[in-house]
Amino acid sequence: MSVTVRVPAKVNVQLAVGAARPDGFHDLANVFLAVGLYDEVTVTPAEELRVTCEGPDAGQVPLDHTNLAARAAVALARRRGIEPAVHIHIAKDIPVAGGMAGGSADGAGALLACDALWATGAPRAELLAVCAELGSDVPFSLVGGAALGVGRGERLTALETGGGFHWVFAMAERGLSTPAVFREFDRLAEGRRIPEPVASRELLQALAAGDAEALAAAVSNDLQPAALSLFPELADTLEAGRAGGALTALVSGSGPTTAFLARDAESAEKVAQTLRASGTCRTVRTATGPVPGATVLP
Length: 298
Ligand SMILES: C[C@](O)(CO)[C@H](O)COP(=O)(O)OP(=O)(O)OC[C@H]1O[C@@H](n2ccc(N)nc2=O)[C@H](O)[C@@H]1O
Ligand SMILES: Nc1ncnc2c1ncn2[C@@H]1O[C@H](COP(=O)(O)OP(=O)(O)OP(=O)(O)O)[C@@H](O)[C@H]1O
Description:
One of its GO terms (molecular function) is 4-(cytidine 5'-diphospho)-2-C-methyl-D-erythritol kinase activity. The active site is at residues 10, 137. The chain is built from 10 helices and 12 strands. It has helices at 68-80, 102-117, 124-134, 138-143, 178-189, 201-209, 212-218, 224-230, 234-243, 265-278; strands spanning 3-20, 26-45, 50-54, 86-91, 146-150, 155-158, 165-171, 220-221, 248-251, 258-262, 283-289, 295-296. A hairpin with a 4-residue loop joins strand 5 (146-150) and strand 6. The radius of gyration is 19 Å and the shape is globular.
């Protein structure tokens, strides 16, 4: 018997970053949107814990106990007094080290899959607590939709959205390390006073109204200068997407995936074609969001 869970990627439509905290993390006002690019995590009873992965980026995914999916299985098993004897298989479509919470998706997916396989009956709040231990983005991968994350991004409030948005994503030739991007943010911020991160009212209104033009005018990412500083070529990708008619162009989270908001499906296809022809990125994908979070497949 196996359980398969499908988990979406995310884009951050607002990422306001505060000053570094004593624990090294940064307080955030992080507005997440789950988008329809998915990893699928399948768990099957096995002799011992084992991870396998397939997909274009599979070679970059660690298959040992550091894999977030393995850590999720171990964390749940420990709490529940169960042996984490499962084979975890990840069918990976979310770019690795791309700023779209791919590893976090696998963590949330494995957690939900093991929870179903072992029929733990753990309350949702317990699953969310395990997610928060695994990483700042993991709780959102579980809940999906649209949400505001505060603290280090793990304390979530669900947000209303008035409809779906059309996105184009350009995957880069190489990845960026999230800690390195936050360190670069700190370096660029040296000597400046960093304001408290707060969610933008215009942005929340645009999401609630399902108004793509208003959302485009309100998106922001405080990590974007740091990502561009470490990966200057991303500026060319952003420009190519704008030239293709995107309403706005931004770096997704810590990057280096770049995200383009389009007016409608037709315009998204045009942006995607322009990006593909530009030679400024590795692959281009279209996706809509919000979509639901981690879901057990029948
Ligand atoms: C950039 C984002 O993807 C935006 O959603 C997240 O903030 C990162 O979330 P994540 O990859 O789940 O990050 P974690 O695994 O919790 O932390 C990785 C590293 O990122 C940095 N980090 C992360 C979250 C945060 N609020 N402040 C930080 O400074 C820390 O150096 C930390 O050691
Ligand atoms: N299941 C996993 N899938 C991908 N990477 C993983 C996984 N587990 C651990 N990792 C490690 O985590 C690193 C970051 O990968 P990930 O794809 O999660 O980055 P990301 O999408 O930029 O994260 P985020 O958007 O949450 O900051 C990888 O380079 C890899 O070493």
